[in-house]
Design a protein that fits this description.
The complex is a heterodimer of chains A (222) and B (114). With 222 residues, chain A is α/β, with parallel strands linked by helices. Chain A contains seven helices and nine strands; from the N terminus they run βαβααβαβαβββαββα. In chain A, strand 8 and strand 9 form a beta hairpin. In chain A, strands 3-2-4-5 form a four-stranded parallel sheet, with helices on both faces. Helices cover 26% and strands 23% of the residues of chain A. Chain A is elongated, with a radius of gyration of 22 Å. By secondary structure, chain B is mainly alpha-helical. Helix content of chain B is 43%, strand content 9%. Classes of the chains: A alpha/beta (222), B mainly alpha (114). The interface between A and B is medium-sized, with 16 and 18 residues. Bound molecules: iron/sulfur cluster (2 copies). The site of one iron/sulfur cluster has 10 residues of chain A, from helix 6.
Chain lengths: 222, 114
Amino acid sequence: MIVGNRKEFQEIVGMLGSNRRVLLLGCNECVTVCGVGGEKEVGVLASELRIHWKTAGETFEVKEHTLERQCDYEYIDQVRGFVGDYDVILSMACGAGVQYVAEAYKTKLVMPAVNTTFLGVTLEQGVWSERCQGCGACILDMTGGVCPIARCAKSLMNGPCGGSSGGKCEVDKEVDCGWQLIIDRLTELGQLDRYEDIIPVKDWRSSREAGPRKRIREDLRL
Amino acid sequence: MRLSYPSNVKVVKVPCTGRVDILLILHAFENGVDGVYLAGCLEGECHFLKGNLRAKKRVQYVKGLLEEVGIGGERVEMFNMSASQGQRFAQCAQEMTERVRSLGPSPVKGGSKK
Ligand code: SF4
Ligand code: SF4
């Protein structure tokens, strides 16, 4: 899923500036699961904003609304009837959702309440961890199912580097060395011989380096 | 035991402190209360195993939220006591009342930031 962090409250207040009528839009998908932008977090942020403006003695209005998704137009369109009643849309979705809402309501200010951070997994309730950077040409078959791009601090294609120590990465003693994980997994799989294969230089054009990406499946189009 | 505790303390009964959601506490502050405290069972004694431990973490989280909105994290607290510790119940009510009194009325009420 896509994982993010709620922005600091003061940053959000600063961003909103003098806009006092806010449509606070949550999303029911990834950001709900990672506890950052679902219905609950919409409720918490709305409450914080109301407390802030009550304390300041100023009028303020926030409408709480959570969409099934903010990355599909059909759902975004559901707020069309009342979006005009608000000065600004504050979105708690990932960056994709925020942008798609902005595309749908061209004359409306749309702001992010969340810092979108990574593609990851739930390690346990309340703990999430990065796993993939969406490189566009997956090599997990060669690396024992552990991604060297997302899980090695230097995204080395052939590691580890000299900074690997006791299974931990030199950037942070709490972080596992991605390449140690790869070697461990290859060992478990009885495929350690694959570690001898040099993984060629990666063609990053499949990743972000060739600009924004798009996917089309003609048979699915209407 | 005929113990008395400050009359400003309003008791809201819940089946377990684990029921106390972050939003319940925030909404109380939004509506102008000066402080909120949770009176949970002793740690390790929760009938639902972890209700009071969850409540403790949530109180900690709400402290952070109250700090960031500028009304102060000291206005919310977690206390633990057993059902037979009437004395402690009264003591905690007294302690929290004194703390909140020294902090003064919640700024939410008066629009005092302005
Ligand atoms: S190799 Fe690329 S697609 Fe595969 S997990 Fe790593 S970043 Fe994601
Ligand atoms: S120590 Fe491991 S994870 Fe860290 S940069 Fe080196 S190879 Fe990558």
